[in-house]
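Assess this today:

___
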Amino acid sequence: MAIAHYSRAISTACVTAINDAVNGGSGAGVIKFYTAPMPSATTVGITSQTLLGTCTCSDPAGVESGGTLTFSAITQDSSADATGTAVWARVLDSSGTVCMDLDVTVTGGGGYIQMPTTSIVAGGPIAFTSFTATMP
């Protein structure tokens, strides 16, 4: 496994750039949860994946401290769009510009986003309310 350690100035700049990107547009950014497969890059469009639901970030999205971006309250999706297994999520600003794609696993599964369950049921909640991004 490759290891990198960044100066605090670089890690702060990186997570500040993430926050600025999610805050783009005139409103709050969103986190959209999808079924597999996860695209190979953020420039790759959605094809066979099913949109399970959308959670809404606060506006502004979060606060940076010491190389960690802590997202403020995230509003859960109280009524999921479809039934399926959340495998990845796409974070977009309020104008729909893609900021990042992140893998999703159950808590302890090692994903960038970890949730108590990745099994989403149409009409049920997607209880995802907090998120941090850290640069080493």
Observations:
- The radius of gyration is 15 Å.
- The CA atoms of residues 17 and 23 lie 10 Å apart.
- Strands lie at 30-34, 51-56, 62-65, 68-71, 84-85, 88-92, 98-106, 113-115, 119-120, 132-134.
- Residues 8-134 form one domain.
